[in-house]
Amino acid sequence: MLEQEEQRDELLEKIEDLISRKRYAELRDLLLPLEAQDIAGLFMELDDKVPMVFRLLPKEQAAEVFVELDSEEQEVLIQSFSNTELKEVLDELYLDDAVDIVEEMPANVVKRILRHADPDVRKSINEILKYPDDCAGSIMTTEYVDLKATMTVEDALKRIRRTGPDKETINICYVIDEGRHLLGYLSIRTILLSEEDDVVGDIMDTHVISANTLDDQEDVAQTLNKYDFLALPIVDTENRLVGIVTVDDAMDVLQEEVTEDIEKMAAILPGDKPYLKTGVFETWRARTPWLMMLMLSATFTGMILTHFENSLAAVPILTSYIPMLSGTGGNSGTQASTAVIRALSLGEVRFSDLLRVVWKECRVALICGVCLAAANFVKMMVVDCWLLANPTVTPAVAAVVCCTLVGTVACAKLVGASLPILAEKIGFDPAVMASPFISTIVDALSLLIYFRFATWILGV
Amino acid sequence: MLEQEEQRDELLEKIEDLISRKRYAELRDLLLPLEAQDIAGLFMELDDKVPMVFRLLPKEQAAEVFVELDSEEQEVLIQSFSNTELKEVLDELYLDDAVDIVEEMPANVVKRILRHADPDVRKSINEILKYPDDCAGSIMTTEYVDLKATMTVEDALKRIRRTGPDKETINICYVIDEGRHLLGYLSIRTILLSEEDDVVGDIMDTHVISANTLDDQEDVAQTLNKYDFLALPIVDTENRLVGIVTVDDAMDVLQEEVTEDIEKMAAILPGDKPYLKTGVFETWRARTPWLMMLMLSATFTGMILTHFENSLAAVPILTSYIPMLSGTGGNSGTQASTAVIRALSLGEVRFSDLLRVVWKECRVALICGVCLAAANFVKMMVVDCWLLANPTVTPAVAAVVCCTLVGTVACAKLVGASLPILAEKIGFDPAVMASPFISTIVDALSLLIYFRFATWILGV
């Protein structure tokens, strides 16, 4: 693993030294044993020397490295390629990688790529580009091994040996009929452990789990994960096999979707670039909309406070507990909403569980609220009243604050747990109902509860 | 896919109907084509009928279903097994699954399992159990295919055919010497695409990326994901091959670690059970410590407010903007900390990037702050002053609030972006430096800034 920063820095120094001394053969030997992902990582630091170093790599490794680069670096490289070089790299790419690259390039680069791709490859790229982003069709590859049900294991092995080199995976082979309808699948293990004269149709597994080209890519990835598959076949509406999604791409989708969820939960509009690659204005555009909306919706809490101005003037010490109350309310709500949002996205909770969730959160809220209230009562009496010698902190004031705590925690947990589930039911993204959104609602609720108790107990 | 709730409910009804009419052969035929994961999902709803239905399944499928059950259901089943039944299930399990089960069971059940396992299996289970939780050794399996460098491809295929049925995967085979030192690896594809008389040592890839038994399981999973491997070899300190981690287990680890991170970011102590399976008291124990700590640390904001009591009494309208200011500050900080925490866990940001991150957040904060302040100024003048006809909302008051907004957003972004990086540097978990923690700090800072500007501009 090249994880260690020192190792990486050392290597970079060596590379730059070799470049400056024009020791290209040595440089090539240094890069040869490295994994494509690590070379791509090094390229990020080499800037304008990248095209030169790239040309040192053997064709196959060059293509592997190319796939791992950021789209900006890929563009720079393509611009520097001669037509022959471009064609060489394109020939080595897997189809789904080629599609990914085409999707990220500006129109003129796309035209140049398509002009130099094989006619077959061009056709397939255009096919896949037709599928909307985020659906199974857009992440699948059409380079899989297909077998006929009438083949013997010997025939199948011959076919795998012949077509295998161009396929993304040979670990799972799919059995189709004349009309390309999906009949079953076979793992390479089953094939190897069978007799040479066994017939594919007899030994294949006919209970195939497949997805549709238009299914959401996250569902496809979750299915692969759930069933521990190495690939999932993708079919069209008539059950004709059109491609497969492999486990490595599914893992990437899961990671991306989690990042998106986390961003939404923090009131950020999701982007698709790494943190340091996102420009200042892009980051600003992703963050301002929710900040603005939440800021303006805080108008309500302001109005509540203005409304109860006289109560606060009568017992000024009440003001100093407002941040604690709204903070604790916000945190309680965040805990509940986060737990429920994650459970929803892992498929552990459905809409039909709403009542179970609410009942659970009620009980948790009660115990949490009472514990916090008790701790807070002791703290107010010992620290605020006695140690800080503030005579306005009376047991009655402490009672108001503590009763509010119990009520706020209860409201927060209920709102936090139920809003995400309701949002999902009506087709909204539950991740948006997270911390910032819940806190804003809970802020207003906690103030209303606070002044209610203040009126009852203190009579203000 | 059995994702759809209706489909599942229909199936459940059918199963319960067949049970009540004692049509066991039909029930067996109904379950046979289903995937183990789906049967396990159905079992959750069948309660006390589970042992009976479980006995209907053929041995191999039964073991697959058993692995997918929750540990509580597994325990109930084991208690209901005769010794022969227990032995049958154990014989069918893959080693790493057996270890997972043993890890979750109470001591008396573990004893019973180990007593009925094969002596070889018992020894291997005990080996793996020695590794600490969360390390590569604890998630690896010792059931891999090993080859010798001197074998021909023909020999290798024979060995794979002979030992394959008991191995977790045959897709990647590992080449070792007499002392079990790892020399290289071969994919089944390379083997199949080579000539029968090629020698393993000549065609193997000798640039093996491996992990150590004591490496963190998350690092191992990230490595598998980064290099798109189907399995990663695990070696001891002397580079002797002791096991492999397969991609399906790596995906599970990544999902678990993300859930843990998300929980920590919401101030919840991470647990390892699904939401609805966690008891009320367990949930309470996971949530109270941070709530309590954050509540008590809000003492500081209270003290600041008490200190400036007279300023608030002089210009009471200032109070009504406190929730908006602390809310916006909290949200700004959350955005920055969440973005940085995720970037850290994906390896996009390191400690050496601290200055770049801070510089980026400074600029983002400035633009965000100015936009928010401008919007807020307009809103205060139009809504609060004019529409709500509040004469105390003067341009001077609006200026105080807007200047505070700019200052608060800047502080929040800087604190939010830098604390997680600093936390990681000193060996803390950056995920803990998220929303709730940052909000508490930013609350206090925003009040200090607020009263500073109030003193300057309003002279209170």
TrEMBL record, chains A, B:
It is found in: Cell membrane; Membrane. SMART domains: CBS, MgtE_N. The lineage of its organism: Bacteria, Bacillati, Bacillota, Clostridia, Eubacteriales. Residues 140-203, 204-260 form the CBS domain. Belongs to the SLC41A transporter family. This is Magnesium transporter MgtE. It is a multi-pass membrane protein. GO terms for cellular component: plasma membrane. Pfam families: CBS (PF00571), MgtE (PF01769), MgtE_N (PF03448). Residues 1-28 form a coiled coil. It comes from the Bacteria. GO terms for molecular function: magnesium ion transmembrane transporter activity; metal ion binding. Acts as a magnesium transporter. The gene is mgtE. Its main location: membrane. PROSITE patterns: CBS (PS51371). Keywords: CBS domain, Cell membrane, Coiled coil, Magnesium, Membrane, Metal-binding, Transmembrane, Transmembrane helix, Transport. Homodimer. InterPro entries: CBS_dom, CBS_dom_sf, Mg_transptr_MgtE_intracell_dom, MgtE_N_sf, MgtE_transporter, SLC41_membr_dom, SLC41_membr_dom_sf. It comes from Dysosmobacter welbionis.
